[in-house]
Design goal:
The complex is a heterodimer of chains A (about 400) and B (about 400). Chain A has about 400 residues and is an alpha/beta fold. Chain A has helices spanning about 5-10, 20-30, 50-60, 65-75, 120-125, 155-170, 180-195, 210-215, 230-240, 245-255, 255-265, 265-275, 295-305, 310-320, 355-360, 380, 385-395, 395-399, and strands spanning about 10-15, 80-85, 85-95, 100-105, 135-140, 175-180, 200-205, 340-345, 365-370. The chains are: A alpha/beta (about 400), B alpha/beta (about 400).
Chain lengths: ~400, ~400
């Protein structure tokens, strides 16, 4: 038998299997939802409209099948390993191509590994002649099947260091990293840490907002000189801050536990809270057959938070980060990144910084591209396009 | 009787809570699904798990669910329709003939429950060490969307519209000279009422300087006290502002949790301000209540929100406030011409100095810093609170009799 130390760093196969009584309890709670009265407006300006949420919850309680979502996860090789005292869950999909480039991709909030499942195939087994990747997709601490931290300190910097440990433990001495949303913040932390073997990073939620623009947005500085394109982006950001676009960010940053009680006890409350996020702002609740985020897939994501009881623990990452906006260049100290950086701005994302800001922010920028399609959950919505961006940004690393 | 007359009619009201609603609440509390414990030893991540678990334990096992009916039905309650919304109010006339009519408005996460213990000292002062000259005829309405008042089904019920409704209510009750009082949302309503200056309003008293929460621009910042108040507001804006921003922008979103989870509702309501949080948590965890903030009183209020299913509609009053503020931006309201009294309670979000109250209200005639009490002053220290009102409105009574 191995020693304690060895067994802790051991990599154990993992299979998701939520107890049936948990699945049943979720259904019972959904069916017993006690609803508020209808909002007093005809749009979503007071939050998720009652009729939409009722429709979704009715479907969630009856026709939705968690086991299918679980099977999507279990179709991929999953593992668990302890890093820095915490169990980390991850998907590890190796390419059949021996010279594939190891890549660690990190999800965000309110996403999960589910948002990244569709890029596994195109990245690990691409069409003939295209570059392949060995893919590692971990669950953030406090998210999904990863352990829930029991002490403060699991901030993006610490997660970044854990990811390097993970890649080395998997035998990947040279690798690249990618992320959007919180995944971008973690990936940028890795870029600053620049551990041996990290060749380059790519993000799709760039910390591009320059310090003077950030100050103007916060009302602590004058509005700087800007080009027309920059001014449009600035106006968009200013307007969104005024309408409570980021209210969930402030609420989770200041008192994550307060939101935590309601969303841990009420699945309808949890769903409503998630739909505050800009990534879901334009979502049609499954009404649009062309929507790249079908109802079942969104419910897989929300059900994962519910069934692993991580609605509160995931929100604590905001508290750990102390209120620094993930879009702020100074806040994320991205000027300290020493490895090559690639940035893709997806055309349907709520945050679309002008290229000029991105160039100012990242001294080691070696790839920047704006796409037409794809939103905040680009890997989920446009997996092929997303994979193309990944191949393009990391092309030079291979040579 | 015409339809109009029927609408403006004042009808007696009694609380009746169906047993099945109480059973359902009990069942939900018992079935609470808890999050993991916060990672810190204080309330910096929000309401602490141990405090909320202690509350839920007491709520499910020891709390008497008949209390709300009993306490409210012991008082004369009425409803009347004003501006299309049913308004619930408690109306206690003093036995003393020259009592001064007073309309007092609760706040969030309070309700008429927070004002119940001040009814005795205000309407029956001789039983509480005061004199007959200190008596008030008391009107305690529930804000629209709160308690047993109706929920507005349309936008526009900001505090200014509520203030207009209050003036109508006092007129309907036959009061031609009256005063008004409020803290929290009640301070906003009372401040609006003071600016509107309806006929019959002869003075107001406030225990929250509403305008300073919006902006401290132009307020004196030279003295130690002034700098301390600025610092307290800054702390509130950086770490205590989450609920405020949530309710101002997405009341429906949090509303789903507040309606579906009793513990979610309790947790949300407990985290108002640091002072009251620790006082309430102390009542449940250490069994040491501060003044009137006892376990039963706190649960009366939370249970009241649950049983009236008003978590979302109450939160919406902040959204209305945000909308009204945006629409009023740059437009100064008419000046306050009636006398203003102000009491600073030491545990309040910020301790407003006299200089600020004087600047905001040039007609300030009374200012005092109380020794005890916090955000829920009437609830926590009903007698001390009542003494403040007697002192603040004393000169107005003299004016009347001379």
């Amino acid at each position: 038998m191995s020693s304690t130390v060895e067994s802790a760093t051991e990599i154990r196969p993992f299979h998701a299997e939520i107890a049936q009584e948990e699945v049943d309890d979720l259904r019972l709670r959904l069916a017993a939802t006690r609803w508020p009265d209808k909002e007093t407006v005809g749009d979503a300006s007071q939050g998720v409209p009652l009729a939409k949420l009722k429709e979704l919850v009715a479907y969630w309680a009856t026709d939705y099948d968690w086991r299918k979502g679980e099977a999507r996860l279990n179709a991929l090789p999953q593992f668990m390993t302890e890093i820095d005292g915490l169990d980390i869950h991850f998907i590890h999909a190796r390419s059949s191509h021996e010279d594939a480039l190891p890549l660690i991709v990190t999800h965000g909030w309110p996403g999960s590994v589910f948002e990244l499942l569709k890029i596994v195939e195109p990245l690990t087994e691409p069409s003939d002649g295209q570059e392949a990747f060995h893919l590692v997709i971990p669950s953030l601490p406090g998210y999904g099947f990863s352990g829930r931290p029991e002490e403060p300190g699991w901030n993006p910097d610490r997660i970044g260091r854990a990811w390097d440990t993970l890649m080395k433990r998997l035998g990947y001495d040279e690798y690249v990293a990618q992320g959007g949303d919180w995944g971008a913040v973690v990936t940028e932390a890795m870029g600053r840490q620049a551990p041996a073997g990290l060749r380059a990073i790519h993000v799709n939620l760039p910390a591009s907002v320059p310090p003077d623009v950030e100050a103007a947005l916060n009302g602590t500085g004058p509005v700087p000189e800007m080009t027309e394109e920059e001014r449009a982006a600035f106006d968009g950001l200013a307007a969104s801050r005024k309408t409570g676009f980021f209210g969930y960010f402030i609420a989770l940053t200041s008192r994550p536990q307060d939101i935590g009680y309601g969303v841990t006890d009420s699945p309808a409350g949890l769903a409503a809270f998630f739909f505050w996020h800009p990534g879901f702002a334009a979502w049609s609740f499954g009404a649009d057959p062309n929507d790249p985020k079908p109802k079942d897939e969104v419910l897989d994501d929300i059900s994962l938070y519910w069934l692993t009881n991580t609605a509160a623990s995931s929100g604590r990452l905001y508290w750990e980060h102390g209120g620094v906006f993930p879009t702020s260049a100074a806040g994320l100290k991205v000027a300290e990144i020493t490895v090559p950086v690639g940035v893709t701005v997806f055309g349907e994302d709520g945050f679309r910084p002008p290229e000029s800001w991105t160039r100012r922010a990242y001294p080691t920028l070696n790839y920047v591209h704006a796409t037409e399609k794809g939103g905040h959950f680009a890997a989920w919505e446009q997996p092929e396009l997303f994979a193309d961006e990944i191949r393009a940004t990391f092309k030079e690393v291979r040579t | 009787m015409s339809a109009t007359a029927a609408a403006t009619e004042i009808r007696e009201f009694q609380v009746e809570i169906p047993q099945k609603k109480i059973d359902d609440l009990r069942r939900r509390i018992a079935a609470t699904r808890w999050p993991s414990k916060e990672l810190v030893d204080d309330r910096s991540q929000g309401v602490q798990l141990a405090a909320l678990k202690a509350l839920a334990d007491y709520w499910a096992s020891e709390y008497d669910f008949g209390r709300i009916e009993e306490r409210l039905n012991a008082l004369p309650q009425f409803t009347t329709e004003i501006d299309g919304v049913e308004i619930h109010f408690i109306h206690v006339r003093s036995q003393h003939e020259d009592a001064l009519p007073l309309i007092m408005t609760h706040g969030w996460p309070g309700s008429v429950i927070e004002l119940l213990d001040s009814i005795g000292p205000l309407t029956d002062p001789t039983a509480y060490g005061g004199s007959a000259d200190d008596a008030f005829d008391l009107v305690l309405p529930s804000l629209p969307g709160y308690g047993f008042s109706g929920e507005p089904a349309e936008v526009g019920w900001y505090t200014g519209r509520v203030a207009e409704a209050w003036a109508e209510l006092m007129g309907r009750l036959g009061y031609t000279r009256y005063v008004a009082q409020g803290g929290d949302q009640g301070a906003a309503v009372t401040d609006d009422l003071a600016h509107q200056g309806p006929e019959g309003l002869i003075g107001v008293h406030l225990n929250l300087l509403r305008s300073a929460l919006g902006t401290t621009e132009g307020l004196p910042a030279g003295s130690e006290q002034e700098r301390a108040a600025l610092e307290e507001i800054k702390t509130f804006r950086t770490s205590g502002f989450g609920y405020f921003l949530e309710q101002s922008t997405r009341p429906q979103t949090i509303g789903y949790s507040l309606l579906d989870s009793p513990v979610g509702l309790a947790g949300w309501m407990l985290d108002h301000d640091t002072d009251s949080y620790y006082k309430i948590a102390g009542a449940f965890v250490d069994g040491k209540p501060t003044g009137g903030l006892t376990r039963d009183h706190v649960l009366d209020n939370i249970t009241f929100y649950w049983l009236t299913a008003t978590g979302a509609s109450a939160a919406r009053s902040y959204w209305e406030g945000g909308r009204a503020a945006a629409q009023a931006a740059g437009k100064a309201p008419p000046p306050v011409t009636v006398p203003v009294g102000f009491t600073t309670f030491p545990g309040e979000i910020f301790r407003a100095p006299r200089s600020w109250a004087e600047q905001v209200y040039p007609t300030l005639t009374y200012f005092h810093e109380a020794d005890r009490g916090g955000h829920f002053a009437a609830w926590e220290e009903p007698e001390l609170f009542s003494e403040e009102l007697r002192a603040a409105f004393g000169s107005l009574r003299n004016g009347r009799t001379s």
